[in-house]
């Protein structure tokens, strides 16, 4: 699933995603780009991109390195895979996200967390017609109900963010594309959501997650804890 381009900068909310995570997940966040060096294969991969794209590409990898360091691990070469997925060290799950003015990386040991997906978006409505392409009738009703309960939250954008986080958690396990229609989302005003997958990883048809709003940002996270 491809995200629509964000055009306005995100404001405060540097610790927005960290607040959604259990202690087993390490998160590094920033609300600006940093002048971080890339490893040679990464620099070659991104060399033809715009300066803006190169900056966000480098920043999320710098943040990934910070998060991995909290696990006592070095950052590997992180050239995106065929579906844009980042590479992680063996025994680690992780996820990256960026929108204008905000970048984040989250990682965890695979023995503690089996799947991890994060996403951040500007808290503003989607462009006209996008909601109809990504949402089922039940999801559109859910977005309307959320607007009544929380009028300051762009529910359609939040739905998009949650589906992005679900995809990032799901793809590394299933190694198959996920359509918007494959994930049926139920967003709750208390900051929780449930997702029913048409093609769940390892036969698991339901996921749960958390979302938050802060400044002009929306953030969502899916964390599948390992069975004890």
From TrEMBL:
Mg(2+) binds at residues 119-121. GO terms for molecular function: holo-[acyl-carrier-protein] synthase activity; magnesium ion binding. Residues 116-204 form the 4'-phosphopantetheinyl transferase domain. It comes from the Bacteria. Its cofactor is Mg(2+). One of its GO terms (biological process) is enterobactin biosynthetic process. Keywords: Magnesium, Metal-binding, Transferase. GO terms for cellular component: enterobactin synthetase complex; plasma membrane. CoA binds at residues 53, 61, 97-98, 119, 164, 168, 178. Residues 42-108 form the 4'-phosphopantetheinyl transferase N-terminal domain. This is 4'-phosphopantetheinyl transferase EntD (Siderophore biosynthesis). It comes from Actinomyces ruminicola.
């Amino acid at each position: 699933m491809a995200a629509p381009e964000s055009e306005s900068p995100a404001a405060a909310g540097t610790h927005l995603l960290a607040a959604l995570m259990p202690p087993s997940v390490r998160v590094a966040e920033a609300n600006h780009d940093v002048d971080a060096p890339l490893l040679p294969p990464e620099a070659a991969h991104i060399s033809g991109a715009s300066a803006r794209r190169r900056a966000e590409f480098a920043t999320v990898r710098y943040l990934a390195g910070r998060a991995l360091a909290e696990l006592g691990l070095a950052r590997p070469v992180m050239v995106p895979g065929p579906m844009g997925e980042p590479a992680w060290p063996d025994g680690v799950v992780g996820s990256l996200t960026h929108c204008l003015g905000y970048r984040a990386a989250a990682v965890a040991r695979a023995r503690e967390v089996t799947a991890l997906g994060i996403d951040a978006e500007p808290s503003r409505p989607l462009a006209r017609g996008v909601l109809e392409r990504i949402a089922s009738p039940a999801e559109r009703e859910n977005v309307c109900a959320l607007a009544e309960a929380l009028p300051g939250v762009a529910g359609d954008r939040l739905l998009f963010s949650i589906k992005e986080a679900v995809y990032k958690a799901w793809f590394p396990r299933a190694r198959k594309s996920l359509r918007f229609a494959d994930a049926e989302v139920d967003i709750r005003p208390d900051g929780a959501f449930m997702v029913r997958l048409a093609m769940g990883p390892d036969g698991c048809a339901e996921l749960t997650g958390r979302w938050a709003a802060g400044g002009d940002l929306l953030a969502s996270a899916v964390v599948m804890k390992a069975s004890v």
